[in-house]
Amino acid sequence: MRRTLLAGLIGLIFGTGIAISGMANPAKVLNFFDLAGTWDPSLAFVMGGALVVTAIGYFYVLKRDKPVLEARFHLPTNRKLDTQLLAGSAIFGIGWGIAGFCPGGAIPALGLGESSAWIFVGAMLTGIAAARTVRVALQARTTQTA
Q: Model pTM greater than 0.70?
């Protein structure tokens, strides 16, 4: 119960920050990407601030033996830049540039009444389900041929 409440509180803080910073507003995000037109550099400061806070947090948190509510840290172990990572990053960036939403901005936008966020989140969930279906089918196919 404590973990769920803490996760909810952290999500609320994150969503509030996203909403206040303007990252839940697709027009503001698209203006950030429009370098030759109505460029709005303010999101660069939001992202820079997030990186600074994250770096400081990692520095202090990783000095602990374990997290507060877990037995151990669950950190990524794969350090390779492979095709799957690069393709996923490219798809994420293209989608963000087209829609003006990323998952972190779209979910708080649902609560702000942003109608296009509902379309984006629906498409995102459909894409996740399709990707999972394709991955399972490919793994099954690989297992059968092996």
A: yes
